[in-house]
Amino acid sequence: MKRPTTSPAASPTKSMILSPAVRMSLGLFLSLGLAMLLLAPLVHAQKKDTAQQLRNVHGVVEDKNETPVGAVVVYLKDNRDLTVKTYISEDNGQYHFSGLDPDADYELHAESADLTSNTHTVSSFDSRKDFEVTLKLDKKKAAR
Questions:
Q1: What is the 3-state secondary structure of 124-140?
Q2: Sequential pLDDT tens for the chain (144 residues)
């Protein structure tokens, strides 16, 4: 007995039928892709906000007569991870540090060959983005 024939367009072939596991995987893949497309702008906006929140510390190093002093080492210590950044002051006494984490506390001081400044603190609780700190070299360094 002959089987009735149908046109290929009317009946699905084995290659067109997907197993339940494949359909679930495909659905999951498509859902994740859609989620990534929808969330990408939010992640970008968050990174942009973080970059806008970074802080700066700048100022001038002066001697006891309030004259700017160049070639002085300015130390900036991150109190969270204890890393130290340095900057050698310009001829006009200017120094600057940028790109600082707003969630960290910092300690700042300057040292020359025989003098040092007081240590100044930049607190994470202070909401300012820009800090101007004058560092006055008015203390003798402790002998080592």
A1: CCCCCCEEECCEEECEE
A2: 565 555 555 555 555 676 777 677 777 767 766 667 666 666 554 444 545 689 999 999 999 999 999 999 999 999 999 999 999 999 999 999 999 999 999 999 999 999 999 999 999 999 999 999 999 999 998 876
If one counts every other C-beta atom within 10 angstroms of the C-beta of residue 37, the result is 9
Tell the CATH superfamily of the 54-140 domain: Carboxypeptidase-like, regulatory domain (2.60.40.1120)
Output 63-67 pairs: Cβ under 8 A, ≥24 positions apart.
63/115, 63/136, 63/137, 63/138, 64/136, 64/137, 64/138, 66/136
Provide the whole-model pTM: 0.65
Using DSSP's 3-state secondary structure scheme, residue 4 falls into coil
The span from the CA of 105 to the CA of 80, in Å, is 7
Instruction: Name the DSSP letter for residue 144.
Output: -
Spatial separation of the C-alpha atoms in residues 26 and 102, rounded to whole Å: 43
Q: Which two structure tokens, joined as six digits, stand for 77? A: 């210590």
